[in-house]
Design a protein that fits this description.
Blueprint lengths: L2 H8 L11 H6 L5 E5 L2 E4 L4 E4 L2 H4 L8 H13 L12 H13 L5 E7 L2 H18 L7 E5 L8 H6 L16 E4 L14 H19 L4 E6 L13 H14 L2 E5 L13 H4 L6 E4 L11 E6 H8 L18 H17 L1 H22 L3 E5 L6 E5 L11 H13 L2 E2 L1 E3 L2 E4 L7 H19 L1
Parallel strand pairs: 3-13, 5-6, 5-7, 7-8, 8-9
Antiparallel strand pairs: 1-2, 2-3, 4-10, 9-10, 11-12, 12-15, 14-15
Helix pairs in contact: 4-12, 5-12, 8-9, 13-15, 14-15
Length: about 450
């Protein structure tokens, strides 16, 4: 048996893959990706494809960013690891913390807490939010509010504020005191309202009603993605995001922006918060902080939060929270190089331009194919189409359609994300106009195939 045959035979036989049924993956082997270059990936059989998923929303700089690879190699040889717990530190993490506070200055964020990834960053924000109120003497504020369809990672806290039951049901009961609010999703909502501005007001009224019902004095924080990602790429009317920011301020509730996906340029702005002209109290980040080259994340804190912790000398303000790899020197070195390249290339500008191109292409496909019920995006390189069996009823297309759709895209040299009846595209932010057109052509071919 050749090495390739061995790899293909053993794939998923001993490894439980994330976000999949072990038995199904054993029966239907996952694709083995063996090489990557630029915005392209190659499977073990030698088939090259444009990575229209961008790794997992995170490979903003593509797969051939030499400055990041060199920074990792240099730091590995110099010092591969040392703890960042009390009493010790390292140079790359110190440099990165300064860079991040400068990068997020416009968002009002002044402190960084390092993590190993997005779920860690969300968990850190939730834990520190509760501690923030206890440090202030406000011990009754323990509840969290979030949006239905929102995605906030896989830790117990993150799963508890997740708004999609696919990530919740098998693990319940989860963290008590978590409540989910209606999402301003014009295509599908309980108010039967398709006007984004009117829907925003209805959802704001529902949020305020729930806050009053729970008691504002019991709510620690509200967490939301500035643009919902895994839940189907749902951008919001600016009045909703700004309205929730104002409401949280009015009721003394911390506003947590989950920007694991949207930070560092994907929306066309440097952050999703900036995109909507708000300043959060906390922000969870990861993914594009290292563009997939090394696991790292950061929970960012505002000056308001900073002052509460740093202005109290009691033990209650000590941060009894952390990870073995918080401030990992190799990860921090990768992030420093990554941020320098991100800024040098001004990837947010290309994300805006290519995002407009992609969204226009999606709209053209909707006009061409009856089974495209809705398209969403237009806010940088985050675009989605919903496949339906009927535009009148909005009934989702059969899951088998999505599987065939993804297969045809692969055959046409493009990888997309298929989530049931939702087709999502979030390529690297360095993608070109020509490569964007290739993605659209593959989507066209897939729609033609499944429409038959």
């Amino acid at each position: 048996m050749s090495n390739k045959e061995f790899i293909k035979a053993e794939n998923a036989q001993h490894w439980w893959h994330p976000m999949g049924h072990p038995a199904a993956l054993r029966a239907n082997q996952p694709m083995v990706v063996s090489e990557a270059e630029g915005v392209n990936i190659r499977d073990i059989d030698g088939n090259w494809m444009i990575d229209g998923v961008g790794g997992l929303w995170n490979v903003n700089l593509g797969y051939s960013c030499d400055p990041v690879k060199e920074a990792i190699a240099e730091q590995l040889y110099k010092m591969p690891y040392y703890s960042g717990f009390a009493g010790t530190s390292n140079e790359p993490a110190i440099e990165l913390s300064a860079m991040l506070t400068d990068f997020f200055k416009e968002d009002g964020l002044t402190r960084a807490f390092f993590t190993s990834g997005g779920s860690d960053s969300v968990e850190s924000c939730l834990r520190l939010a509760r501690q923030y109120h206890k440090v202030r003497g406000d011990h009754g504020r323990t509840k969290f509010m979030s949006l239905k369809l929102g995605y906030h990672g896989t830790h117990f806290g993150g799963a508890s504020v997740n708004g999609n039951n696919r990530f919740r049901t098998a693990y319940e009961p989860l963290l008590p005191g978590c409540f989910h609010l209606p999402v301003p999703y014009p295509y599908r909502n309980p108010f039967n309202e398709s006007d984004p501005a009117k829907l925003a007001q209805l959802c704001l009224a529902a949020a305020e009603d729930e806050i009053k019902f729970q008691g504002p004095e019991t709510v620690a924080a509200f967490i939301m993605e500035p643009i919902i990602g895994a839940g189907g790429i749902i951008p919001f009317h600016p009045s909703y995001v700004q309205g929730m920011r104002e409401m949280c301020t009015r009721y003394g509730i911390l506003f947590i922006a989950d920007e694991v996906i949207t930070a560092f340029g994907r929306t066309g702005s440097w952050s999703g918060s900036r995109h909507y002209n708000i300043q959060p109290d906390m922000m969870s980040t990861a993914k594009a902080i290292t563009c997939g080259y090394f696991p790292l994340g950061a929970a960012m804190m505002s000056e308001k939060v900073q002052e509460v912790f740093e202005g109290n000398s009691d033990d209650i303000a000590a941060i009894r929270h952390g990870y073995t790899y918080s401030g990992h020197p190799v990860g921090a070195a990768a992030a420093v190089a990554c941020l320098k390249e991100t800024m040098r290339l001004q990837v947010n500008e290309n994300a805006a331009a290519r995002g407009d191109q992609m969204f226009a292409g999606f709209q053209a496909l909707k006009d061409k194919y009856e089974m495209v019920g809705d398209v969403r995006g237009g806010e940088g390189l985050m675009t989605c189409m919903e496949l339906v069996s009927s535009r009148d009823t909005k009934a989702p297309a059969d899951p088998s359609i999505g599987k065939k759709f993804g297969k045809v895209c692969n055959e046409n040299g493009v990888m997309v994300r298929v989530a049931g009846h939702a087709i999502m595209v979030s390529p690297p932010l360095i993608i070109t106009e020509e490569e964007t057109n290739k993605i659209l052509s593959a989507l066209d071919a897939a729609l033609a195939a499944v429409s038959e």
